[in-house]
Every structure is written in structure tokens, then in C-alpha cells.
Amino acid sequence: MKLLDIILGAIAVGSALAAPAGDKPTPTTTKTSKRASKFQFVGVNQSGAEFGNKDLPGQLGKHYTWPVQSTIDTLIGKGFNTFRVPFMMERLVPNKLTGSVNTTYSQGLESIIRYITSKGAYAVVDPHNFGRYYDKVITDVDGFRAWWATTAKLFASNDHVIFDTNNEYHDMDQNLVFRLNQAAIDAIRSVGATSQYIFVEGNSWSGAWTWTSSGNGASLLGLTDPQDKLVYEMHQYLDTDGSGTSTNCVSFTIGAERLRDATAWLKANGKKAVLGETAGGSNAQCIKALTGMLSYMQSNSDVWTGWLWWGGGPWWGDYIYGMEPPSGTAYKGVLPSLTPYI
Ligand SMILES: *[C@@H]1O[C@H](CO)[C@@H](O)[C@H](O)[C@H]1NC(C)=O
Ligand SMILES: CC(=O)N[C@H]1CO[C@H](CO)[C@@H](O)[C@@H]1O
User: Fold this and answer.
1) What residue stretch is flagged as signal peptide (predicted)?
2) Predicted pLDDT of residue 230
3) Which atom of ligand 2 is nearest to the CA of 86?
4) What range defines the domain where residue 114 resides?
5) For the chain, which ranges sit under pLDDT 70?
């Protein structure tokens, strides 16, 4: 296994050196290319600032990093218009939920968000915390409200920002997940951030395939937004346990199958959703499962607003789902097949 990793690593480095000429970053002045799909949001998660999440606050360049501007340009050139930026709640507001921002980290976050939105794309502000703060489930709903008021204030005047209440709540009381989401919505609106979309996530890692069986459907249906701009963010991987840790996909048809139940819920209740994380391995079976899923979403685009790939970012190396230009595994092997859905 070790030896295989080393060989794969060497291949990754080799192919990075031999990047095809067509993969040069798009000049920053290039306008968003014409897109094939009618999805509102098509994008890529841009990892880095949430890395080293056990090292808090952590050091820039050692434990975490920021997404790369030229990558944003390149992916916009491919038609993408949405970038989800995961980061750590504790790095932005250290020590206590009701505290104030760490200006060093905040400037890094604000800078990449500003860059993305200056290109006309959406930037999703994604506290990648799984409903936890310093590794403990957040039960202080008022504290969470305060954290969100502090954070939303930084972006209140930028209408291309999208607020994502939290990444993948899991193993939590369902009513707590409801109350945290509602507190975030209320806090965001209370500081004058009234034009932005808000992505709300569910329990059970916000899985689309378990949206109703987990209780998310019944519980989160009650969320309210005075601006009526809520989008349910669901995640879906296509490997056996749905964890997004394998290059294998269950079958050619698994993508569409895993979204059926959630789609019925969305239609029955007149709600909209975005697939905030999805991926599959760079192989024929996964590509067919992914394009089948995206095609199913397109034919249900009254409720599915779009999708975001997991993941891009400068530190993924030869990661199985890497979407980082020029040599990411998925960038090279999967993206060419996804063009009709961008
Ligand atoms: C603020 O953030 C910087 C950069 O991540 C870090 O070096 C510093 O220790 C942080 N300060 C606190 C109080 O967390
Ligand atoms: C499927 C996947 O890659 N999930 C990732 C979500 O984000 C955390 C933090 O970056 C990773 O540790 C997970 O692997």
C-alpha cells in the first residue's frame, strides 16, 4: 500500500510537470464561458482553510492554506460559477462563539471571498464544522446565533455571497439541528444581510439519500426565512456507504437512484435544493453514475438548483476526487464528461 502511494504520488508529480498546453489558467479578464446547463449554481468546493482542523488555530502554510486565485479563474473558464469555501469556525472566531474575529484569518477569508465574487461568481461561506465547535456538539443556540451575526456582518453588503449554516451536522438531536439552522438564518438577516441565499444543511451528514428517512425532511421543512431565499443543501457520494472515500460507484444508475426520495420530498413541498458535495472516481462506471445523476437533476431543475464537486484546493495532491487544475485526478479524468451539466 505504501509503495503504491509512492508510485501514485510520483505519477501525480510527473503529470503536473507535463500539463497539457490547453490547461493554462484562463486570464482573469476572461468572461464566464457559455454554459450548457440551466443550473443556477455549478461549482467546486475549494478546500484548504479547513485543513488541519485538529490544529487550532494552526499556522498558515503549515496546517492550512487558502484557495488559489488562478484555480478560480481556470474553473470559471470551464463554466463553473460557484465556489464553496470551507473554513474553521474556531479560526475565524476563537475561544468562544460570542467572541470577536481573528483579523488575520478573517482577512484571508474575506480576501478569497471578495476575489471569487469580483469575478461574478457565487462564494459559499462554509463553516466546515459538522455542528461542532472545538470538537463538541454546539448546544448553545444563542452562541451560534452570535457567531453567525459576527460572520454575516463581514459579508452583509456582498450579494454574491451565499451563507451555508454549517457543514454536515451528524449524530445530533434533530430538533437541535433545526434550531441551529433557524438561529443562523435569523442572525444573518438581523445584521442586514438580506439579499443573499442561505444554504441550510441537515443531520446525518446532510445526505440526500437519507433526507426523509433520517428525519431531516419532516424537521427542516419548518425553517423560515423572511427573504424566502433558503436552499436545502444536500450531499451525495456514490460509493457503497455514501461516505465519499472510494473510487468505486455502486452501479451505473446509483446517482439518480440516490436522489429520488429527496426529489419527491422537494416537489411535494415546493422546496429547492443544491447538491453541495458530490464526487465519484475517475472510471467509466462512476462517470456514468455521475452523468446519470446530473441528467436526472437537469430534468428536475424546478427543484434542483445545481451541484458542486468535492473537491478542489491546492493541497489535495493525487486525491481520488481532486478537481484542482492542471493535474487533479477528477480535473483530468472526470471533468471532460461533465461539460453538458455545467
Ligand atoms: C489568529 O490567526 C492567526 C493565523 O491563523 C494565528 O497565527 C493566531 O494564533 C490567531 N490568534 C488567535 C488568538 O487565535
Ligand atoms: C468526502 C470528503 O472528502 N469529505 C471531506 C470533508 O471535509 C473534511 C475536511 O476537509 C475531510 O476530512 C473529509 O474527507
Assistant:
1) 1-18
2) 98
3) 10
4) 3-341
5) 1-33
Is residue 90 part of the annotated active site? The answer reads: no
Evaluate the CA torsion angle 143, 144, 147, 153 in order and state its sign: negative
Q: What is the pLDDT of residues 230-241, one digit of tens each?
A: 999 999 999 999
pLDDT of residue 34: 77
Neighbouring-strand partners of residue 236: 278
Nearest CA, atom 3, ligand 1: 104
Nearest Cα residue to atom 12 of ligand 2? 51
Residue 27 Cα to ligand 2 middle (Å): 30
214 CA → ligand 1 middle, Å: 37
pLDDT at site 32: 52
Instruction: Domain count for the chain, please give it.
Output: 1
| CA distances, 314 to each of 125, 301, 308 (Å) | 18, 32, 17
Give first-to-last CA distance, the chain, whole Å: 36
| Nearest ligand 1 atom, CA 58 | 5
For the domain that residue 256 is a member of, what is the CATH number?
3.20.20.80
**Catalytic residue flag (residue 277):** yes
Give the model's pLDDT for residue 114: 98
Query: In whole angstroms, how far apart are CA 256 and each of 5, 155, 206, 208?
Result: 32, 35, 17, 11
Spatial separation of the C-alpha atoms in residues 164 and 187, rounded to whole Å:
13
Give the pLDDT of residue 49. 98
